[in-house]
Amino acid sequence: MTDTPIKVLICEDQELVRTGYRTIFSAQPDMEVVGEAADGRAAVEAARRLRPDVIVMDIRMPVLDGIEATRQLAGPGTAAPAKVLVVTTFNVDEYVYEALKAGAGGFLLKDAPPAELVNGVRTIARGDSLLAPAVTRTLIGHFADRLRPADTSSPAREEVVRALTPRELEVLEQIAAGLSNAEIAAKLFITAETVKTYVSRILAKLQLRDRVQAVVLAYRVGLVSGTD
């Protein structure tokens, strides 16, 4: 933890939810809420003006939805991608995959306990990705059929297999299953630091920005599926 607080921008159209987030984050000694936005366009403008460390983004918002707002702030081609944490409602907001594809650093469910939400912000602020382990597999698996055909900008399964060592492929599969580094370490009988090294190598070899993109790619090329 540094002496400089994590600057948080809250983007949520429901005032009651925004108030709850502000209360939770403001109570943390290492966080500062620098602004709020009730629609996507205001979120983009506020983010560019305030330069927050983490943007807590709802998806369903008026004027401009959270997916497009995320794409403008963190998507392909952005000079300095913002760090976006999507907080969504599972089985209601089925656009979360598109938000991850648009550049979000991770997601949590809206009913996550405050401690998990706070930890999520800290995780994204560190530059790590956050995939809620309890829902990653189910959520991305829900979109597996949609993801299966690789687009022209994505490597094919054979390219991924050739690029990675067998151990790296094994780690990638565990990442896609929603396991944390500690959980992968326990399952593969290696240290968490070794897992972290493998993850870094995987991202570098496949030219991926973060763990989220690794999960999406694993499903897209068929290394794993929602029925595994």
From TrEMBL:
UniProt domain HTH luxR-type: residue ranges: 157-222
GO molecular function, one term: DNA binding
SMART domains in the record: HTH_LUXR (SM00421), REC (SM00448)
Modified residues (4-aspartylphosphate): 58
GO biological process: one example: phosphorelay signal transduction system
Pfam families: GerE, Response_reg
Entry-linked SUPFAM superfamilies: C-terminal effector domain of the bipartite response regulators (SSF46894), CheY-like (SSF52172)
Domain Response regulatory: residue ranges: 7-125
Keywords on record: DNA-binding, Phosphoprotein, Transcription, Transcription regulation
Transcription recorded as keyword: yes
Name of the molecule in the record: DNA-binding response regulator
Organism expressing this protein natively: Nonomuraea aridisoli
